[in-house]
Amino acid sequence: MPLGTYLGVDLSSSADRPSGYAVLDGQARLRSVGLVRTDEQVLSLASRRRPRLVALDAPLSWPSGLDSKGRQCELQLAHEGIGTFRTTRRTIIRPLIERGIALAAAMRE
Questions:
Q1: Nearby residues of 4 by Cβ (< 8 Å), 6 or more positions away
Q2: What are phi and psi of 24, to 5 degrees?
């Protein structure tokens, strides 16, 4: 694909459920959509498409501090009246966070 393509992945918490993706060109035109399941499929898609940017719809970090009430961005969103699933050590979305962190690290390599 030409430079200026972008890949967005709506990541599921496990390979048991599909993750949706979309590829946009440099003018924000939709070029393709589809589903992937495994981390290997996500990484292969990114490798084949060679996007300028990959957006993973998943938290890519844990908050600092063991007693944190969430990441700074989540606290700011709450202050603005926007609800989120808080990223704490007790979160119900732990598998999604761990998957997102691992995929982001693999893509940075």
A1: 25, 26, 52
A2: -115, 150
The span from the CA of 83 to the CA of 8, in Å, is 22
As to burial, measured by CB atoms within 10 angstroms (0-12 exposed, 13-18 middle, 19+ buried), residue 53 is: exposed
Assign 58 to helix, strand or coil: coil
Domain boundaries, the chain: 6-108
Of 50, 52, 49, 48, the residue nearest 27 (C-alpha): 52
Task: Tell whether pTM > 0.85.
Answer: no
Sign of the dihedral through C-alpha 92, 74, 64, 9:
positive
- C-alpha–C-alpha distance, residues 48 and 52, integer Å: 12
Q: Which residues on neighbouring strands pair with residue 20, listed in sequence order?
A: 10, 35
Ranges under pLDDT 70 in the chain? 1-3, 65-67
Structure tokens, 72: 């700074």
CA distance 90 to 87: 8
